[in-house]
Write a structure and sequence with these properties.
The protein has 149 residues and is an alpha+beta fold. The protein folds into 2 domains: 4-65 and 106-147, no CATH class; 68-99, no CATH class. It has helices at 5-20, 35-45, 50-62, 68-79, 86-99, 111-116; strands at 29-33, 121-128, 143-147. Strands 1-2-3 form a 3-stranded mixed beta sheet, with helices on one face. The longest helix is centred in the N-terminal third of the chain and has 16 residues, at 5-20. The chain is globular. It starts with a helix and ends with a strand.
Length: 149
Amino acid sequence: SGGGLRAHIACLGVLSEMKEQGLLDAVTYLAGVSGSTWAISSLYTNDGDMEALEADLRHRFSRQEWDLAKSLQKTIQAARSENYSLTDFWAYMVISKQTRELPESHLSNMKKPVEEGTLPYPIFAAIDNDLQPSWQEAKAQETWFEFTP
């Protein structure tokens, strides 16, 4: 968890080795927070094909071009949202420049492999340690959110 791009690459490495060792097929759940959720999302986007995922990642990191216009458009779109944060800017301008990717996947895209049991059930987590619920005066520390298909 944590570290964004570092966690993404590290989790992809773990998933790749698990697949190579035949362990990924035995896993019932995959959970991640931060960049590891990007890795889990990539796994589902590629239908669990780690070789294709690795080839795609190598291709994206070897290209020199970056679609600034598309990243800027996504950033402006996010800025119009009532829950815009610096995380949106970071994702669309910094991470997309490094990975050459703007993920377009949705939890609903994962429904079929989850129902068929072809991939582990994903649990995407987020932590908000600045959340201030109306029923509590002090900040709630490390409020944990989970998202699943």
